[in-house]
Amino acid sequence: MMMVVLVVLSMPIMVSHAFAQNIDSGFQGMMYERKPDGGIGPKIPGVKITFVRENGSATKTVTTNKDGFYRISLKKGRYIVSATHSDYEEYTSSPGFIVVTGSGYQTGNIFMKKILMTTVLLIRHAEKSNDSLSSAGMLRADELVHVAKKAGVEAIFATNTNRSQETVQPLATELGLILNIYQQYDEIQEISNKVLTKYAGKVVLVAGHSDTLHTIIEAFGGDPNKCCINGDEFDNLCVITIYGPGKYMDGSRDFDPMCAELL
Question: Which CATH fold would you assign to the domain 117-261?
Fold first, then answer.
C-alpha cells in the first residue's frame, strides 16, 4: 500500500505588503496667478514651495518648473505649505494643512497674488488768494497737467476746499476723471484705505495742504519728516511707492518719499 504524504508549507505572502511600503507618495500640482477679480491667471515658474510636517519633524522644498508644475515626495502626514516668489505675495496654507495619504500623489494647485505697486503723487495745493487760486496758482495748475498726465493717473483726490479742487481740476478734465472729494482733516485715513484697496496697483494723485501733508504720509505708514514739501513751497511733489499691502519702498513701514519739481 502506497502512502502519500502531503506536505503543506506555510509561506506568508509578503509581496503586497512590501510593495505598499515602497509606494511613492507626495503632492503635485500647478502654481497659478490669482487675478484681482478672482480669475485664474498664467502659470508661475520659479516658485519655491516649502512643506513642513505638522509636528515640525520634516521640511522639504521644491521649485516649480518652467511650466509652473511641481512634484514632491512626502511621507504620510499633514503639512503646512508656504510659497514664495519675488513678484508675488507670499502664500501660506496656515492655519490649514494639506494631507498626504501615503498612497500615491495627491494633486493640489496653488494660487498666488501678484504684488501690486501702488504709486501716490502727493502735492500741496497751488498758490492761493483767499480760498481760490491766484494767477500764479492757476499757471501752476496748468503745469501740473503737463507733469502728471503721462504718469498714468487713474484717480484724483482733493479736499473740500476751492484751492485744492482748482489745483487738480485741469488735470482731471484732461484725463476725463471725476474728483474724489475728502474732508481736509477728518477723512485722511479713509483716503489711504481707499487707495490701497480700490486703486491698488494704480497711480493716484492726492492734493493736500501744508498742515495735512505729513498726516497723509503717516496714513500710508511712512515717515513724514522725509517729505520734500515745506510749508512755503508749491513746486514740489512727493512720490510714494507702495509694494503690495503694507509693503512700502524698503519693505517696511518707514519709507523715503521721492521728490520731483512741478516747475
Answer: Rossmann fold (3.40.50)
